[in-house]
Amino acid sequence: MMDMAALPVQHPERPANAAAARARFFNSGNAFNVKLAPVPAADFGAVAAAALVPGAATGVYPCDQSGAIGCPFPATTPLMLARYAVIRAGETLAFDCVATGLIGCVLRGTGAADAFTWGEGDVFLLPGGHVALTASADAVLWLVGNEPMLAFEGLRPGPAALVPVHFPAAEIERQLALIGACTSNDGTAGLALIFSSDGLEAWRNLTASMTLSLNTLPPRENQRAHRHNAAAITLVLQGEECHSRIAGEARRWSLHNTLVTPPGEPHSHHNGGDVQARFLIVQDGGLHYHARTMGFQFLE
Questions:
Q1: What is the pTM for the complete model shown?
Q2: CA-CA distance, 27 to 8, in Å (whole number)?
Q3: 94: how many CB neighbours lie within 10 A of its CB?
């Protein structure tokens, strides 16, 4: 007698119409052994270097590892796509962003979006759809959206549910100073500034599916090992002699590089230098908070 796990996918015997012919059947022995490629702990240093080199052309430089994770659409992690945007002075970068929202950080330069002007160190959120960014000085931005999540379901964003949100660099510094003057307890995951908006204040997210935090690490200190079910995309903003340890492997930092922490992998962050480390982290955490599956856990 055949083990049910060895049965191939079953088709209907005599389908009466095209809809019935599309039916497929699995069983409890073979339905739960789907094999997916793991999410690599990627390092996009080469992409960052191409975008940051003086004279780089206006355009989008994606951090795409869709081939490694088996996605038929560009993706940095299964549900998020990060990229660098280069905009030469006096030029406009315009593109259609098939996402519900686009998180941005200005690494260099000045310019404008429809609702505000931006400068180095600013963070912002734009609704998905048509995006137009104009630079008044040569600029490089870091942008993260949830295009892969929509592509997976074959969706397109409807009427914009999000509105632009702008976090100027000076206000970010003021907020960091405020929390830096406070105490914390053993259950607090380091000293980090979490970005949200009036529309999602109750959820502490920046979009319904994505969270954004600016994490800091004092000189010669480490953030203890932990794990969570959300994938994380990290942008290095500041630090010397820093690295992350992901699944037991050290990943050295370089300025403005993009790193990936796969979902569920144990990881920690380490500052071996003499200046405060800063790193911006986007996670698909909003989705996990909503599903009650975040699974955050300290491991030491």
A1: 0.94
A2: 10
A3: 10
